[in-house]
C-alpha cells in the first residue's frame, strides 16, 4: 500500500473493507435487519452496542496516538491531511488489516509499542480478525470502572454484564499475557538479540497473535523454530482464546460437596 500513500480514495475503500471484516458478522446481520425496517420494534443487542462502541473508540484512540507519537518523527514535513490519513489508515490496519502506507520499521519505538497494543486488542468476536477481541477489553475496562466506583455489578447500556463473562475476559487476558511472554522468550532464546532487536520480536509476536500481518521485515530471517512459535500464535489468535481453551478443557465434573470459603489478600 506504500505506492497508495497519497491516494486517499483507495485508502478510504480499504479502511471500510477492514471495518466490514473486523466489526463482526453478528453486528453486520443486526445492521442489515435494522436497515431493512422489517421489524419496527427492533433493538440492537448488548453485544452489538459494546462491540461497535469499543471498536470505534479504540480506532479513534489509535488515530490520536499514532498522530501524536509520529508528529515529531515520521510526519515531519508532511501536510496535515497527509498526516491525518496516514494515522487513520494505520490505526485501522493495525486491527487485523495488515496493510501499511509507510515503512513500519522506520516508526518511533513508542509508536511500535502502541501499534502492538492495537494489534493485541484486534478485531471483534465472530469476525475475520484475531487478538483478544474488543469485548474482552471492554468488559475488563467496565469491571475496573465499577470496582473503582465501589459497585459490585457491571452495568452498561441499561444492561448488566453476566459474572461468567467477566471471568472469561480476565481469563483471556491472563492466558494471553502468559502466552506472549512465553513466545517472546522462546524467540529470543532461538534467535538472540544481537541480530534482531527485542522490539522487533515483540512487534512480530503481537502481529501474529492479532493475525494482523504487519511486520518490521524480520519474518524471513527467523529460524524454523521461531516461525513455528508464530504459527501457533496465529492459529490461536484466529480461532480465539476462549474457543481454544474450551477445546482443551476437561469435561466438567459434578461436585457433591463444597469447601468452606475463606478470604485472602490480593495485590
UniProtKB/TrEMBL annotation:
Keywords: Cell membrane, Ion transport, Membrane, Transmembrane, Transmembrane helix, Transport. It comes from Halalkalibacter hemicellulosilyticusJCM 9152. Its main location: membrane. One of its GO terms (biological process) is metal ion transport. It is a multi-pass membrane protein. It is found in: Cell membrane. The chain crosses the membrane at residues 12-29, 50-69, 107-123, 168-189, 224-248. Pfam families: TrkH. This is Potassium uptake protein. One of its GO terms (molecular function) is monoatomic cation transmembrane transporter activity. One of its GO terms (cellular component) is plasma membrane.
Amino acid at each position: 500500500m506504500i505506492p497508495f500513500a497519497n491516494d486517499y480514495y483507495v485508502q478510504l475503500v480499504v479502511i471500510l473493507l477492514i471495518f466490514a471484516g473486523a466489526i463482526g458478522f453478528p453486528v453486520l446481520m443486526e445492521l442489515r435487519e435494522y436497515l431493512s425496517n422489517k421489524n419496527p420494534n427492533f433493538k440492537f443487542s448488548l453485544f452489538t452496542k459494546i462491540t461497535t462502541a469499543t471498536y470505534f473508540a479504540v480506532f479513534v484512540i489509535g488515530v490520536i496516538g499514532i498522530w501524536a507519537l509520529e508528529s515529531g518523527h515520521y510526519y515531519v514535513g508532511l501536510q496535515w491531511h497527509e498526516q491525518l490519513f496516514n494515522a487513520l489508515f494505520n490505526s485501522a490496519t493495525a486491527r487485523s488489516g495488515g496493510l501499511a502506507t509507510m515503512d513500519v520499521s522506520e516508526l518511533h519505538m513508542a509508536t511500535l509499542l502502541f501499534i502492538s497494543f492495537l494489534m493485541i486488542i484486534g478485531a471483534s468476536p465472530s469476525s475475520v480478525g484475531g487478538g483478544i477481541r474488543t469485548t474482552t477489553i471492554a468488559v475488563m475496562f467496565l469491571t475496573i470502572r465499577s470496582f473503582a466506583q465501589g459497585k459490585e455489578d457491571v452495568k452498561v447500556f441499561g444492561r448488566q454484564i453476566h459474572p461468567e463473562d467477566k471471568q472469561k475476559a480476565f481469563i483471556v487476558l491472563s492466558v494471553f499475557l502468559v502466552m506472549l511472554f512465553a513466545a517472546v522468550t522462546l524467540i529470543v532464546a532461538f534467535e538472540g538479540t544481537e541480530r534482531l532487536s527485542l522490539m522487533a520480536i515483540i512487534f512480530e509476536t503481537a502481529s501474529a497473535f492479532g493475525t494482523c500481518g504487519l511486520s518490521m521485515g524480520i519474518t524471513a530471517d527467523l529460524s524454523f523454530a521461531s516461525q513455528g512459535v508464530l504459527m501457533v500464535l496465529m492459529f490461536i489468535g484466529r480461532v480465539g482464546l476462549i474457543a481454544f481453551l474450551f477445546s482443551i478443557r476437561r469435561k466438567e465434573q459434578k461436585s457433591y460437596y463444597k469447601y468452606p470459603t475463606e478470604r485472602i489478600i490480593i495485590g
